[in-house]
Specification:
Layout (H helix, E strand, L loop, with lengths): L8 H9 L3 E5 L1 H5 L19 H4 L2 H6 L1 H17 L4 H10 L5 E5 L5 H5 L5 E2 L8 E2 L34 E2 L11 H13 L2 E5 L10 H8 L3 E5 L12 E3 L3 H13 L8
Parallel strand pairs: 1-2, 1-6, 2-3, 6-7, 7-8
Antiparallel strand pairs: 4-5
Helix pairs in contact: 6-10, 8-9
Bound molecules: adenosine-5-diphosphoribose.
């Protein structure tokens, strides 16, 4: 799909003069890859549970097979997905600006698979599980999980060190963000001159503080989202549309760098 964007001069100038761009992404960026968002992943076996009731340490302790099965289902969906033009446009943007930081709330690895480096994952990484008891990292066996469409209960593997249950490498509700990634994200928000928030409702804190911190430090804020969000009034520019359409068209127009997907 292609899009002819009419861009304000001020936005083009902000890109051309930026010394450090921070891109802050959420579930909307992976949506066009077919990765179910947190709420969309709430079907089949999981439909009768509130997602927020599955994504907690308490839920895992109460019923590890139910929660691990849900994450195996999500992992199988992510492994079948491929990066989309939004992920790819962020990689292309990196070639045109002196410095870029990518901060995501997504637990998938699609930014990395597209070619982004040093992505700060505020809500953890689906592909990096660890022991619930002792924290020892655990590696998935090679190969693709093949979970049924409606999901199923799966007993978590045992930690080879302490026999504790292996848990997903994500941040659950009630847990702190990984300190090093959060510090990097804070630095990226406070130190950038252009902050792009894309595909996030910006409602889950503390991640949602980042655009506000950036704006407070004087950065210009661009939002890309097909729907209204809590950031509409904070953003200097709101580009309304799907990330996989708007981002490639934007990078193509500003830097005269058209990808095959921008037609
Ligand atoms: N392109 C851009 N944005 C999109 C697209 C798209 N194709 N499709 C949907 N969106 C937008 C929606 O309009 C919405 O604003 O993506 C946003 C998704 O919002 P959320 O589901 O709240 O996702 P996110 O902001 O990433 O949530 C943050 O909350 O669910 C928890 O831990 C989970 O990391 C997640 C966090």
């Amino acid at each position: 799909m292609s899009l002819d964007l009419i861009l304000p001069d001020s936005l083009v100038k902000a890109f051309k003069t930026a010394r450090h761009v921070t891109v802050f992404t959420g579930a909307g960026v992976s949506a066009e890859s077919g990765v179910p968002t947190f709420r969309d992943a709430h079907t089949g076996l999981w439909a009768r549970f509130e997602p927020t009731a599955l994504a907690t340490p308490e839920a895992f302790e109460a019923d590890p097979a139910l929660v691990w099965g849900w994450y195996e289902w999500r992992r199988s969906r992510v492994m079948r997905a491929a990066p989309n033009p939004a992920h790819e446009a962020i990689v292309r943007l990196a070639r045109h600006v002196p410095a870029i930081s990518v901060v995501t709330q997504n637990v998938d690895d699609l930014h990395e698979r597209a070619g982004s480096r040093s992505v700060a994952h505020l809500h953890g990484r689906l592909m990096q599980p660890r022991c619930f008891a002792c924290g020892t990292p655990w590696r998935y066996p090679d190969g693709m999980p093949n979970e049924p469409e409606d999901g199923r209960r799966v007993t978590p593997p045992e930690c080879p060190e302490c026999a504790g249950p292996i848990r997903p490498g994500v941040v659950w509700f009630g847990e702190p963000l990984p300190a090093d990634e959060w510090l990097r994200a804070l630095g990226a928000a406070a130190g950038c001159d252009l902050f792009i928030t894309v595909g996030t409702s910006a409602m889950v804190y503390p991640a949602a503080e980042l655009p506000r911190i950036a704006a407070g430090q004087g950065a210009r804020v661009l939002q890309i989202n097909p729907q209204a969000t809590a950031l509409d009034s904070l953003a200097d520019w709101n580009l309304v549309g799907a990330a996989g359409v708007v981002l490639p068209a934007l990078i193509g127009a500003v830097f005269d760098d058209a990808s095959p997907t921008t037609g």
